[in-house]
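2024-03-11 09:14:02 INFO queue: dequeued item DUF2812 domain-containing protein, len=176
2024-03-11 09:14:02 INFO validating residues
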Amino acid sequence: MTKKVFKFITVDNVEKEEAFLDEMASKGWFFSKYASLQYHFEQGEPAEYTYCIDYKEETGDEEEYLALFEDAGWEHVYAYPILSGKWMYFRKAVKEGAPKEAIFTDDASMVALWKTIRSRWTRFGAIIALMLIIMAIASVFSSPSIFVSILILALLIIVLYGKMYIRITRKIKLRS
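2024-03-11 09:14:37 INFO prediction written
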């Protein structure tokens, strides 16, 4: 049996997404993919898993990258391609009495990840907002109602990506 769950989690909340996937596994729903703003799950026996998410830039070394995780006991679950890279989803069964494991064991690697995410998503958000503002300006004389709608959308994008930038910057400062 499969289940789809709509859940909007922004890139600055990777920990929240991992906790959500852990919780679903404990209820017997195992993450299989992400598409159309929905998490897809397969039903099974409830189990304790630790899900970890990484952002992998496309550098041509994906086989070695996946082998490294496999050697450490992580199962590759799904890769979501976006912005010349992929969100990589991994999971590992939690051993009885053992603490949950993480793929990032030092602050330097976590900071490097956050800097990559901040850079890519800030540029993406700025480009989208700029395109919307240009569209709004182009429509100001032809249709004032469209102008207002596009301008509001641009402002929402600026607020959303601005919030992500600030939160990720705080995370970087905490770990630096």
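2024-03-11 09:14:37 INFO annotate: Residues 2-93 form one domain.
2024-03-11 09:14:38 INFO item closed
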